[in-house]
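Notes from the 1:1 (GR / supervisor)

We went over the backlog. Supervisor wanted to see one worked example end to end before approving the batch request, so GR pasted a single chain during the call. The sequence is below; no edits were made to it. Supervisor asked that the structure be written out right there so they could see what the output format looks like.
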Amino acid sequence: MLTMLSGHPEGEPDWVKRISEGDDEGYFGPDSAVWFVNGGIPVIVAGVGALLMQTLHPGAMAGVHDHSRYASDPLGRLSGTVQWVVTTTFGSTETVGKESSRVSRLHDRVNGEYRPGSTPGDSRSYSAHDEDLVGWVHVIFTDAFLRAHRTWGEPIPAGEDGESGEDRYVREWAQAGRLMGMANPPKSVAELDQALKNFGPHLRSDDRVREALRFLTKPPLPWGTRLPYQILVAGAVSTLEPETRQLLGLRKPWWPAIMVTRMLLQLVSVVLGSESTSRQRAQERIERIRSARA
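Structure output shown during the call:
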């Protein structure tokens, strides 16, 4: 289980240890909605759901198909996504900058051509740095985080002046979109929903999507991780809109996936402890900074 979530057999890889480094509190902080949501156990399910959603944009799917390691190392891809989200959430601005540079270097080689529609011969060049692709990734991850938290998390603390907890989260996490290169990320749930609708006409399913989904939903994992991963997939699929499931060609599980996923997340919470190691490392850094200022 620890290996599946962190990519490291002992559960704390070096990149988590580096979260304790730096001289500021980072882009968010202990009282932020981002810490509240992204530091919660439901984010595990959200990561799986976002990877499923990502396949529906033909440009993003081309990048996944041509350059991703989802077929040879599905858990490695999941743990790589976890690394970026966790570091951006809890790291100092310097650490986040280094992590963003790492991801940017990986994206430098992700380019090529894709068919935006079904018209034969119609093709378009793409780069992982393209703002529409960056925007798609940011929007689907933000949406997936919120859906998972609504289903399995506690209410997000409200912001000032009557701002809802969910609006507060979207507004704060917009910083992650800017770090990725999105000029105008959504800053409220309404803007997030509109951004998703705007992408609607560009989404489609094809043989590449179906191939990716076969690996993402039933990857060749070690026996010890197959069942928990299948539960996470079922939970993620259950949170998707019916139209999205239909486009993906996925059915809502017939069994009580929401309840079983909750049980798995409770088990994960027991295994990992009430507070994540990454949050502990961030708090170590913040306490050190505040003590130095006193």
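Supervisor's comment: Residues 2-289 form one domain.
Batch request approved.
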